[in-house]
Amino acid sequence: MQERPTTEPARESLAGLLGGSKGAIDASLPPAAFVLGWLLAGSSIGWAAVTAIAVSVLVGVFRLLRGDRARAVLVSLAAVIAAALVALHTGRAEDFFLLQLLSNVASSLVWAASIVLRWPLLGVVVGFALGQRTRWRQDPELLAAYSVASWVWVSQYLLRVVVYGSLWWAGQVVALGVARTVLSWPLVALTIAVSGWVLYRTLPDDHPGLRNPRPRRVTGEPVTTDE
C-alpha cells in the first residue's frame, strides 16, 4: 500500500513562530542588577533601585537599536521603575519582586479563563502571528489542540507563583533574584518547546498544519484526503 505523502514537509516549531525567548532574557537583567546592587551597597534599596533602572535603560537602548518598538521598551522600563518604587515605599527589598508575583497570578487566571471560554490564548497569539485573526477557531481540532497546549502556559505561571510567593514571604532577596532568572528565559524556552510538542501531539496526523485551519466538517460529509 502506497503511503500518502504529507502536505506539510516539516511542521514549524512554536519557538520559530513566537520568536523564541529573547525578550525574557532581556527582562531578567534588571532584577539581577537590583539584587547585585543591593548586595554591593550593603542592603541599600536606593542603590539597588538605581542599578536596576540604569540597567533597564541600557537594555531599552539596546532593544531600540535592534529595531524593537519604542512602546514595548517604555512598558518594560515603566515596570522596572514601578517595582523599584514599591520596594522604596515599603522599605523591603523583596517587594521589588511583588509586582512580578502578582502579574503571574493574573496571567495564570487569564490563561485558564481563556481555555474555559474556548478562546485559548496560545491560539490567539499564534493566530495573530500567522495573520489568521480568528480563522483558527473554525477548526475544531486546532481549537482543541490550542486549548490543551495552553495549559502548559498556565502551569508555568503557577510554578512562578508558588516559587516567588514562597521566597517573597520568607524575605529571601537573593533567592528571588536567582529564581527570577531561572524562571524567566529558561522556563519560557521550556514552555514554548513543551507546549509546541503537546500542540502537535494533540493534532491528528493528517492535519494540514497551523497555517492551514480546516473548517468544521458537516456530519455526513465525506472526508477528502490529498493524494
TrEMBL record:
<dbReference type="InterPro" id="IPR016566">
    <property type="entry name" value="UCP010219"/>
</dbReference>
<feature type="transmembrane region" description="Helical">
    <location>
        <begin position="109"/>
        <end position="131"/>
    </location>
</feature>
<keyword id="KW-0472">Membrane</keyword>
<dbReference type="Pfam" id="PF11361">
    <property type="entry name" value="DUF3159"/>
</dbReference>
<feature type="transmembrane region" description="Helical">
    <location>
        <begin position="182"/>
        <end position="200"/>
    </location>
</feature>
<protein>
    <recommendedName>
        <fullName>DUF3159 domain-containing protein</fullName>
    </recommendedName>
</protein>
<feature type="transmembrane region" description="Helical">
    <location>
        <begin position="72"/>
        <end position="89"/>
    </location>
</feature>
<keyword id="KW-1133">Transmembrane helix</keyword>
<keyword id="KW-0812">Transmembrane</keyword>
<feature type="transmembrane region" description="Helical">
    <location>
        <begin position="45"/>
        <end position="65"/>
    </location>
</feature>
<feature type="transmembrane region" description="Helical">
    <location>
        <begin position="143"/>
        <end position="170"/>
    </location>
</feature>
